[in-house]
């Protein structure tokens, strides 16, 4: 697995530790992780099925929700099956190329999800601040282009991350990654030599995605709230604000865990490793679990369609 070169090595694979310090509890920890993964998969597939079947939901907001569901399925599936294999079978070994591929999918689709939230904020801004032109501005073709733009942005931003590791970082001090998946900084910190380019690029992407996207979303909601406050009656204000509630909840569910995990990784040097790794896994699991719940509970059309399906399925044949 290694070719020795002085004090460093050229790896062909890495060794993922799972949750460091909690190895004896891996079997027990796997139970909630497996349960959450099943819930996430079922919830997002349900959202996709409901939107597909219900023609009244063929609107920009719900198309973006379907994009979120697909992204959440990719994010959770790119990490949890390997994590469960580590917990259940001790399958800790991962080939170098497989590690870089996993890294790309995780960071790329997290970036794409942020882009979709930005597109959803634009949709809400147009729907509330310029409702007469909403259908003419947010056509199906425009929604597709916004989704494609978010995907291409994720690929362009994140594509260089594994490439920079492949091209620049050949020697490593150890093959052991004290993590449950191939996170960018967890791999870079193992490398011998100069890692400043990798560090700076990773921090720059984090700034572009986490800071600039959140600022743009905040700016859109400032204008939305100003428009809402200009409505004549409290009932109209509450009804209009309610249409944004699900999106705001989803944004907080996505950005808060990823911000806490990123800050913990870079600045929380006194945080125990198992706490950091658990946080990193939760930020990839919490949005896929809660997004379907939030939209099913808060969106009347989805809630009513789900109840109709459940009632129909419960009726005797």
From the alpha-carbon coordinates, what is the Rg to the nearest angstrom? Answer: 22 Å
What is the total tally of β strands? Answer: 5
With strands numbered from the N-terminus, the spatial order across the biggest sheet is 4-3-5
How many helices? The count is 12
How much strand content do the residues show? 5-15%
Largest sheet: 3 strands, mixed
Helix/strand structural class: mainly alpha
Can you describe this structure?
- There is one protein chain.
- The chain has twelve helices and five strands.
- A three-stranded mixed beta sheet has the order 4-3-5. Strands 1-2 form a two-stranded antiparallel ribbon.
- The mean pLDDT is 87.
- The protein starts with a strand and ends with a helix.
- A hairpin with a 2-residue loop joins strand 1 and strand 2.
- The longest helix is centred in the middle third of the chain and has 34 residues.
- The radius of gyration is 22 Å and the shape is globular.
- Helix 2 runs antiparallel to helix 4 and helix 9 packs antiparallel against helix 10.
- It is mostly helical and 317 residues long.
- Helix content is 74%, strand content 5%.
- The relative contact order is 0.15.
Task: Explain the layout of strands and helices.
Blueprint: E1 2-5, E2 8-11, E3 13-16, H1 26-53, H2 60-77, H3 80-89, E4 93-95, H4 96-129, H5 134-137, H6 140-158, H7 160-168, E5 176-177, H8 184-188, H9 196-229, H10 234-267, H11 273-298, H12 300-314
Parallel strand pairs: 3-5
Antiparallel strand pairs: 1-2, 3-4
């Amino acid at each position: 697995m290694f070719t020795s070169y002085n004090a460093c090595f050229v790896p062909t694979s890495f060794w993922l530790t799972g949750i460091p310090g909690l190895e004896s509890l891996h079997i027990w920890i796997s139970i909630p992780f497996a349960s959450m993964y099943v819930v996430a998969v079922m919830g997002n597939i349900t959202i996709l099925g409901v939107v597909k079947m219900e023609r009244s939901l063929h609107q920009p907001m719900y198309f973006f929700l379907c994009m979120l569901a697909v992204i959440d399925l990719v994010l959770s599936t790119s990490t949890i099956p390997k994590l469960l294999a580590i917990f259940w079978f001790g399958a800790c070994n991962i080939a170098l190329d497989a590690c870089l591929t996993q890294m790309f999918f995780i960071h790329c689709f997290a970036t794409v999800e942020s882009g979709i939230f930005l597109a959803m904020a634009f949709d809400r801004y147009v729907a509330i601040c310029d409702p007469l032109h909403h259908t003419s501005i947010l056509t199906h073709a425009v929604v597709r282009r916004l989704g494609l733009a978010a995907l291409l942005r994720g690929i362009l931003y994140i594509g260089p991350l594994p490439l920079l590791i492949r091209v620049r970082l050949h020697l490593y001090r150890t093959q052991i990654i004290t993590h449950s998946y191939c996170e960018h900084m967890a791999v870079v910190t193992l490398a011998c030599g100069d890692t400043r380019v990798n560090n700076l690029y990773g921090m720059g992407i984090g700034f572009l995605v986490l800071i600039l996207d959140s600022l743009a979303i905040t700016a859109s909601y400032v204008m939305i709230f100003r428009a809402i406050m200009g409505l004549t009656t409290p009932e109209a204000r509450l009804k209009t604000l309610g249409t944004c509630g699900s999106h705001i909840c989803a944004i907080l569910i996505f950005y808060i865990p990823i911000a806490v995990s990123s800050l913990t990784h870079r600045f929380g040097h006194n945080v125990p490793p198992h706490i950091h790794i658990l946080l990193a896994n939760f930020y990839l699991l919490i949005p896929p679990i809660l997004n379907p719940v939030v939209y099913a509970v808060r969106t009347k059309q989805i809630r009513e369609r789900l109840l109709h399906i459940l009632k129909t399925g419960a009726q005797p044949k």
